[in-house]
Amino acid sequence: MTNEFNLLEKYEWLGEFWSTNETEKFPGVLRYSPQEGITVSALIHSDRIHTYREKTLYGYCQETGYLTLYGCFVMSEGTSNLATHSPTLYASYAITRGQFSTTDSFESCQFELTGLDEFCYPQGFKLRNKFTSKSICEAETSDAKIFLAKIAKGRMIGKGEISTLILLDEENDEFEKELNSFAAELMEKHNLSFINSKSDISHVLRIENKGSLSRGGILKYMFSLKQLFSLLFLRPTCVKNISLTYRDDEDKIINCQMLYSLLIPEREIRQIDKDINHHFMKVNVNNIKDNFQKIFSEWDELANDKTDIILDTLSTHIGGGYNTVQHTVTFISCLEQWYHKYEKSSESKYDCVVNRYGTNSLKDFII
């Protein structure tokens, strides 16, 4: 099982790094933070590192195993003295547990969003949340399947161990014996050698590649979903962790983690960390689960319609002053006016936003 990295936390690991041709390996410090992203600080002088402009960099750290860093280039010249002059490399994202090429893709991508658990189930009562392996809702496009689902954490409990899940006084030995005996008989009756305890249930979004989706295409879907749910939450949200799966040369499914350079300002992190209450959300999972295919299809068409600036800015600023439908529509209208001016559209400045945002099912759920 791979380590799960929280993209809102900071990490620092010592490792060894090298380029695609492995002509020169160098020791370095891999750092990650949501504000600064992914950096590799070389610990030795190297003229090769000073001019590094390749698309990938490979490395190994004890905490991550082998990893591949993408989008690498020299960000700063670092510190210098008489003995060393070490630069710092920047990476857009990194994938653990393998050395991948720029064209390698993945079978699936699973990620969590801040606020998604509360959107799906009130976390004050999360112990009552029942697990199911079935997805809560799903959507499909020509190259991917999208699922909103639950994942559970716990441990295996064998026969005669059920009492370990309950806080019992040492004087309740007789009750403990009877409880374990009863649980063992019930497991025998249903032909179970063990059961799984429930320590936590969380909610994730999963993208399954239908075969033709590139790695970049998977990331595009991920951030499109992040923008959609930010609009549904009416507040900023952020990807907390990312898991990927691929098949190795022996056709085994390998799970790996992704670190992504979010580059989030401190102010936005504080906004994201604010408490959110399921009962006061204008929209929750019950409003979308029966119509998610339609909602996502319309959103996917919208996201591909030259509106990246609008969607990204909107998902960033909702909750930071744009927390009503009226403010939201006004904000979109202002940005749409810029597009109207830039593209010299024949529509009046507000017709475009009304036609684009006011007639689809997203409006029905938001309002």
Q: Give average pLDDT, whole number.
A: 77
| Pattern of helices and strands | EEEHEEEEEEHEEEHEEHEEHHHHHHH
Radius of gyration: 24 Å
Describe the largest sheet. 14 strands, antiparallel
By oligomeric state, this entry counts as: single chain
Q: What's the total helix number?
A: 11
Strand content: 25-35%
- Number of β-strand runs: 16
What is the CA-CA span between the terminal residues? 43 Å
The computed structural class is: alpha+beta
How is this structure best described in words?
The chain has 367 residues and is α+β, with helices and mostly antiparallel strands. The chain contains 11 helices and 16 strands. It has helices at 47-50, 116-120, 173-189, 215-233, 266-272, 285-288, 292-303, 308-317, 325-343, 351-357, 361-366, and strands at residues 11-18, 26-33, 37-42, 56-61, 65-70, 73-76, 88-91, 93-96, 108-113, 137-140, 144-153, 156-158, 194-196, 200-209, 239-247, 253-260. The strands form 2 sheets. The chain has a 14-stranded antiparallel beta sheet. A hairpin with a 3-residue loop joins β4 and β5 (65-70). The chain is globular, with a radius of gyration of 24 Å.
Summarize the structure.
By secondary structure, the chain is α+β, with helices and mostly antiparallel strands.
Protein traits:
367 residues, alpha+beta, two-stranded antiparallel ribbon, 11 helices, disordered C terminus
